[in-house]
Amino acid sequence: MNSVAEEIIANLPPLRIPRLRHHRVTDWDPYFENAEGQGINGSQNVALHLGATALLDCRVAMLSGKKVMWLRRNADWASLLTLGNTTHISDPRYSISFQYPNNWRLAIAGVRREDRGLYVCQVNTHPPRMLVTNVTVLAPDIRIVDEARHELRDRYYKTGSGIELACVARPSCPDSRIPHPVWRKNGETLPDHVDVYHINGSNEDLVTKLYIEQAKKTDSGEYSCSVSQFSTAAVHIHVLNGKLN
């Protein structure tokens, strides 16, 4: 990080998050706008799905040569993400673009759980003007269960027995849509003799079942189900000769 960025962070004021409200312009200083061109200041909330691309908007009117920066902050630390059109973070998922006429848009590709938190768009007035965006990351709950709906991590079968597993995925909120879970064995596509079918679960659940009619020792391995590449559950299946203890 260069000396300019270090000086900016060192002189940041304590973070206070007022409620989002209309901003009445009484002078020629920069101010924040929403998409409808109404003046705002304070904070706003954004909910993002795991794996999506975050687009955080910061529309600044009457900028008049001032600098716009994006920071990530909490009560104890601040990290400079962008300054003007320049990115100051090594993570390639972050980028900044200027959307005409006044939107300094921060993009975060492939949102992760750890990306949740506070993002601050700040203009270097005195005192600085800030628009705080609180990012929440939505991730589906995903579980592998047996016939009795008990969650599984390891399961033992004897050769010739049937194997039936269910992958249950529940959206993080009622209005969100997620695809059906996808099954894999040892990270690869399932063998041809393994059947998969979808059923309707209770409430908002999506259920994808896996069935093997007559298990063989070669069916042992790790079976995983996932919704996209970010939410995954796995169970280790052991197929043994003879009786189970």
Quick structural overview:
The chain is mainly beta and about 240 residues long. It has one helix at about 5-10; strands at about 20, 30-35, 40-50, 55, 60, 70-75, 80-85, 85, 95-100, 105-110, 115-125, 130-140, 140-145, 155-160, 165-170, 180-185, 195-200, 205-210, 220-225, 230-240. It is elongated, with a radius of gyration of 25 Å.
Polypeptide structure, described:
The protein is built from 1 helix and 20 strands. The chain folds into 2 domains: 31-138, Immunoglobulins (Immunoglobulin-like), CATH 2.60.40.10; 141-240, Immunoglobulins (Immunoglobulin-like). The strands form 4 sheets. Strands 1, 2, 3, 5, 6, 7, 8, 11 and 12 form a 9-stranded mixed sheet that branches. It is elongated and about 80 Å long. The protein has one helix at residues 3-10, and strands at residues 21-22, 31-33, 39-49, 54-56, 59-61, 68-73, 78-83, 86-87, 94-99, 103-108, 117-123, 129-138, 141-145, 154-158, 163-170, 182-185, 195-200, 206-212, 221-227, 231-240. It is mainly β and 245 residues long.
| CATH topology term of the largest domain | Immunoglobulin-like
Structural class: mainly beta
Sheet bearing the most strands, described? 9 strands, mixed
For the record, what CATH class of the largest domain applies? Mainly Beta
Give the CATH architecture of the largest domain: Sandwich
What order do the helices and strands come in, and which of them pair?
Layout: H1 3-10, E1 21-22, E2 31-33, E3 39-49, E4 54-56, E5 59-61, E6 68-73, E7 78-83, E8 86-87, E9 94-99, E10 103-108, E11 117-123, E12 129-138, E13 141-145, E14 154-158, E15 163-170, E16 182-185, E17 195-200, E18 206-212, E19 221-227, E20 231-240
Parallel strand pairs: 3-12, 14-20
Antiparallel strand pairs: 1-3, 2-3, 2-5, 4-10, 6-7, 6-11, 7-8, 9-10, 11-12, 13-15, 15-18, 16-19, 17-18, 19-20
